[in-house]
Write a structure and sequence with these properties.
The structure is a homodimer.
Chain A: H1 2-14, H2 21-32, H3 39-46, H4 55-67, E1 72-74, E2 82-84, E3 90-95, E4 101-105, E5 122-133
Parallel strand pairs in A: 3-5
Antiparallel strand pairs in A: 1-2, 3-4
Helix pairs in contact in A: 2-3, 2-4, 3-4
The structure holds a DNA duplex (25 and 25 nucleotides).
DNA sequence: CTTTGTGCAAACGATTTGCAGGATG
DNA sequence: CATCCTGCAAATCGTTTGCACAAAG
C-alpha cells in the first residue's frame, strides 16, 4: 500500500506534475477501479467519507493527467466522458442496457490491418468497440 | 432531384414519421453531406439563406430520425454528438488534428472475431475506430 | 378533428473559467 | 519565493423541456 502510494508519487513527478493530495487521490482512485467512472463518479467516491476535493479540482486533475497520458478518456455514451487509468492499447465492450463498459485485452481480438487503408491518411492506431448485452441484463 | 425528394418523403412515411418541412430539411441535409455534422452545423446550414428551422426542432428531428434508425449518432469527440445518415455498418477514421471524421466501408477492414470473446456477454456487433492524421493536416 | 410537430425561452447537466488565497518544489 | 494548484461561484456549451400555437393525416 505504502509502496503503491510511493509509486504513484513517482509517476506523477516523472511526468512533471506537482503532487498534491487532490491529484494523488484522483489518480489513485482511478487506478483502483475498473469501471470507467465519470468525473462526478470520482468526486462522489472521494468525498464519500470526508470532503477531499472540489468539483473543479477533479476536472482539472483529470485534465492534467490526460495531458501527460496517465489517463485516457473513453467516449462511448452521449453526454458523458468517462476515464480510464489503463492507457495501454485495448478494446472496449459496452452493454446496450446498463451502459457498463468493460476492457477487452488487446490480444483477445485478431489484428486489423488498418495500414493498407488509404494513402490520404497517416494511420496511427485503432481500437474496436464491441456492443451487446452483459450478463446482468 | 424531385425523385430524391419523393424518396425522402416515402422513407419518412414508411417509418411512421410525419413529413414536415423542417424534418424533411434536416434529413435531406444529412443525406447530402458526408462530414458528420453536429446538430448545430445542420442548423447553421439550413438557416444560411433563410430561416428554416429552430434549434429545438433540429434537435427533435434528429431524435425522431434516430429513433427510427434513419440516422445514427457518432461519438468520437468530447462534448459533441455528430450525426450520420449512413446507417449501414461501417467504421470510422478520425483525424487527431482537425477532428474530421471519415467513413470506412465495412469491407475495407478484415473481420474481427468478436463472438468467441466471453460467455458473459451477448455480443451484437462491433466497429473499428481508426485514428491518425488526415491529408490536410 | 385528433394527433403530433414547431418555436420560443427557460431549464438543465456536464464542463470550464476567473480570481483570490494556499500549497508545492 | 516563484510557480502552480485549489476552491468557490459564475459562466459557458450542448441539449432538453414546457407550453401555446400551427400543421399533418
Amino acid at each position: 500500500m505504502q509502496q503503491q502510494a510511493n509509486h504513484i508519487v513517482q509517476t506523477l513527478k516523472s511526468k512533471g506534475l506537482r503532487v498534491t493530495p487532490q491529484r494523488f487521490a484522483v489518480y489513485a482512485n482511478l487506478l483502483e477501479r475498473s469501471d470507467h467512472p465519470t468525473a462526478d463518479d470520482i468526486l462522489m467516491d472521494l468525498n464519500q467519507t470526508a470532503p477531499t476535493s472540489s468539483q473543479a479540482t477533479v476536472y482539472s486533475s483529470l485534465q492534467a493527467l490526460r495531458d501527460v497520458s496517465l489517463v485516457r478518456e473513453v467516449l462511448l455514451e452521449e453526454g458523458v466522458c468517462r476515464y480510464d487509468a489503463n492507457v495501454e492499447p485495448h478494446h472496449h465492450f459496452r452493454c446496450r442496457c446498463c451502459g457498463a463498459i468493460a476492457d477487452i485485452p488487446w490480444d483477445a481480438l485478431s489484428d486489423v490491418d488498418v495500414h493498407s487503408l488509404s494513402t490520404k491518411w497517416k494511420v496511427e492506431g485503432y481500437e474496436v468497440t464491441v456492443h451487446g448485452v452483459c450478463d446482468r441484463c
